[in-house]
Amino acid sequence: MKQHFSRRQFLNLIGAVGGSSALLKASLAMGLMQSNDFQGPVSVAPVKGKNKAKVAVLGAGISGLSTAYELERAGYDVVIIEASFRAGGRNMTVRHGDKIDEMGHTRYCQFDQDENLYFNCGPARIPGHHKRLLHYCRALNVPLQIKANSNQLAYIQDEKINGGKPIRQVDYRADANGFLSEMMSKSIDKGAFEQQLSEEDTENFLSYLKAFGSLNEKGKYTGSDRAGSQRDRMLFPPTPKAPMPLHDVFKSDVWRGVSFASQIYDWVEPLMEVKGGMDGIVKGFLRNISSPVELNAQVRKIHNLSDGVEIAYEQAGKLNTIKVDYCFNNIPAYFMAGIENNLSPDYLNALNKFKRGHLFKIGFQMRERFWEKEGIYGGITYTSQDNAQLWYPSHDIHAAKGVMLGAYCWDEKQCARFEAMTPEQRFKYAAQCGENIHPGYSGYIENAVSIPWARMNNQMGCGIHMEKEDWEHCLPILQKPDGRHFMIGDQISQHSGWQEGALAASQQALSQFNQLQASITSSHGAAYVS
Amino acid sequence: MLVKNTFFALVVSSFSVSASVDKTDWTPTPQQFKYCTVCHGNQLMGNPNIGAPRLSGLSAWYIEKQLQAFKQGKRGMPDQSVPAHEMQSMVKELSDEQIHQAAIWASKTQSPVPSETIVADAKAGESLYKQCAACHGADGKGNQTIGAPALAGLHDWYLLNQFDAFKSGSRGNVQGDSQAQQMQAAANLVNSEQDLKAIVAYIQQLEKHEEHN
């Protein structure tokens, strides 16, 4: 069974995995969240007195690292406890020799030893309005470059259209605009807008439609040189291709799904990426944090005490128990039921409503950048097959080799099919899918990595979500501390699966922390005003 | 590697690291089995959010038999439940010796008895349970001689899931495993969802009673 793209799938990915504007409004009204005009990170109330307060941050993902960074700068004594062998969470870039810690299928990345050959397994693009993330990129000296997210010369491949052969996006665009314009022109001729439009208005509108859809003098769409020419257009007059059948243009779910991709706010262009791999952000934080990061340390127990939090973690078969003044918890919420704790029943109930999300990616090292010979430099091809997307790298154009994304699935059923396979079966399947888009595709593949986020050790999901009704009730509970325990992570934001969501949750928790600190200090007679 | 040695050398100096408060109850996780606790939780206490049952409280012989069943493809095939298949891929690469060791370790873990998630008539369950008791014991502790595992101490949601799996044939439909087939036949004797829930609610209470002793 094949899954087709739907607009819903797209919207789901845009971090909207659960979430509602009503809740956002509520949070704004409660003063818990900054409005859109981010002015800089929360200024954490500095440590007062001789005894540094101690803080444990559970999880060294983006939210945990940024929380530790801000607390450390304010003078707190911080320890980060991380279950994995590496820091970064889902901000993960793999290169030659890196371990891919999938449950039951541990593999090592076999890419050539070359700094240009890497794959962003998690986040891979940054829009210009993700101000928190961009703030940290600036502050931590993380170099960015422009990344092409959409490419009109890349393909739409829909098994229902054109005998399953790929069609360039520019062809779809020209034909869809053309047909729409022609229909609009005809409706105006029938006088649909006579009441509102003067004769001059009508003329101007028709002229705009002609330009929008590339219509001829008679207001007909007969194909357009905007989609190129059938002959060399440098030497011969343009000879536009005949339009696709109108039926096909609007029948394609894939095309409908991506027509407006670059108009979705998180994908408005230009987008950016970190030079050399997204984990440059993780490295940036680690360069600027001196707090210890305890790796391979699984948290076993979180107990709120009247004056702090007791945390036990297991590392190399040894159970360590520490007492801290505060705890910031970045652990995926669905794991909390397997950690001994005394969190309040409402809080625990809210945590248990979270469901694992499924996202799946494949990265192929290609012996040649064959896509560049097809005029494709960066951007994405979308397909109705299970591999769903192909991403062509924007960096290192015309290099000898390249790593491209060979599958990126958001649909749970597509993900489930890949998850049930061994890595080697997945590569074979995704290669077969690729053949239907780029004949000879399999022959270019030298080696591969697969990242089923729902099967990655210590993650078991990406795009965590809840039922909408639960979300509206539960998020406000989790955006407040329970005792001296704060939840953080993209899970506690409206933008699950985005680093900006992780940072927003961290910032939100730190402003709550300031309030809690202020109330504790004032109850001791020495008020701190933030 | 993202994180280099910088941090390894730093012991949590300013944090007083003490031996555990509950050290007596606590069984260390062998390094080779640290994946197990990701889903099954601290001391294999289970995690309903992942569909991972509580394993502490089960006998080593039964755990080993089930791990072998996963490895040999008798449980957790892709067309069965997602958590079961996830479990299968964890076990596939374990050696027989590792499976043996894992079972011994799991049987030594201790964790709190799960609280009930199903509301049902445990009283009605008591009389219905009599037919189960023949194999699983009146106390729900199981009987190794006839291959019947302990039921007391398992999560109620997990008991329900497995019961459904036996009933639908996705579990127990294994040639040559007469015990699994026997359970499949027994599952088909329970006719209503209500009866099943009552039985499960009763089993839940068994372990609680034990705790009070």
What are the SSEs and their pairings?
The complex is a heterodimer of chains A (530) and B (213).
Chain A: H1 7-16, H2 21-29, E1 54-58, H3 62-73, E2 77-81, E3 93-94, E4 99-100, E5 107-108, E6 119-120, E7 126-127, H4 131-139, E8 144-147, E9 155-157, E10 167-168, H5 169-189, H6 199-213, H7 246-251, H8 253-258, E11 271-274, H9 280-287, E12 293-294, E13 297-305, E14 308-315, E15 318-324, E16 326-329, E17 340-341, H10 345-351, E18 360-366, H11 370-373, E19 379-383, E20 389-392, E21 402-409, H12 412-419, H13 423-435, H14 441-444, E22 445-452, H15 468-478, E23 485-487, H16 499-523
Parallel strand pairs in A: 1-2, 1-16, 2-12, 9-19, 13-17, 16-23
Antiparallel strand pairs in A: 3-6, 4-5, 7-11, 8-11, 9-10, 13-14, 14-15, 18-21, 18-22, 19-20
Helix pairs in contact in A: 3-9, 3-16, 5-6, 10-15
Chain B: H1 34-40, H2 60-71, H3 82-91, H4 96-108, H5 122-136, H6 156-168, H7 178-187, H8 193-212
Helix pairs in contact in B: 2-3, 2-4, 5-8, 6-7, 6-8
